[in-house]
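Hey, can you fold this one?
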Amino acid sequence: MFNKRNGTLYVGVTNDVVRRVHEHKTKVSPKSFTAKYGCNKLGYYEEFNYVNDALEREKKLKSGSRKNKIALIESINPDWLDLSEQDMFWIR
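Sure. Predicted structure:
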């Protein structure tokens, strides 16, 4: 999640990305990091079959550099679009 191009970034894991994006957008937890910094745009996501694989990837991303996170987003989303606003995102 991000708030604007090259702005604040948030990395997280969930078992339901559609639900979780909705929660970030509607600030279900008003004191959360994403609410505080306005991270309500989906810039990148990956899907995993096993939760342990997802948690391992999250840990790797969180410990990585900001530069690498930006490169990852731009590898599939060079225009920094909110992927949750794309029609295909909601068809799951």
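The mean pLDDT is 94. Let me know if you want another pass with a different chain boundary.
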